[in-house]
Amino acid sequence: MRITADMSNRCVVFCVLLAGFCFISWKHSLIGVKDALKLAGRGFIFLGICTWLIYMFPRLKYFFFPVCQELPDSPLLESNRQKQEQVRRVQQHQHDDKTSDYAESVIKPRQSVLLQQRMERYHRMTGETWKLSRGLPVGGEEDQMCGDADVDENPNQGARRRRKLLQTAAQDPVQQEVPKQKKVIVLPDEPSADAEGVVKIALRCPSGRTICRRFLKTWSSLLLLDWMMKTGYHPALYKLCTSYPRTELIAAADVSLEEAGVLTNTVLNVEEKEPAIT
Prior knowledge:
The chain is an alpha+beta fold. The protein has helices at 2-27, 33-64, 75-126, 141-146, 155-170, 222-231, and strands at 198-204, 210-216, 238-242, 266-272.
């Protein structure tokens, strides 16, 4: 690049000197204007041809005489390349081992615990808690309990009796509690739309349904949980979250809707709670 720039500068200087020489020669000559124009035209043509040759000379040179530089194979470079490749493979193997260890020791146990908790919650909700028991081996206690069966009972009665015995054996007497009374949810009357401090709240359910209701800002935020429970989503399994920014709504007896952040018409999403990992 530097050689080409020097050649270009020299060509410019040569052209300027040639133009000055032509002008001085014309001033001291006896030729007319027509001959001077012809001479100037020939000079411009000559300059154009010279410029084109100067522009094309390096390209023609590289075209007819290409430069091929081949680097000699160096044993030192080859050994360094092999060492780098070996180090890269060792690091990749170490990274793969760490990833597999983390998946075996952390991810898979966590997923199995979550799956077990979801299955237990599903069986409790469907009333099939007998599926959570390990059962009894054939020829063990089950046969002993069934040995007292009446000879005259039919197969349906025997199966019903054995199922009751298994459910009784699977129950833990320590965890039995006094059955609680069913909570009756009674929401206050919906205020009018033109009342002071009224906000309209919409619940977006996981099923895709959206329900709306009006509340007063001074009411307790627990009313939202009661409303959600009355809709069919128990607060023990679901929670209320704002749309944007996504935050869980604070619901307490001593916290009003205004203090919980419900200042204007709001849309709340009903989301399923993540089971706690113990």
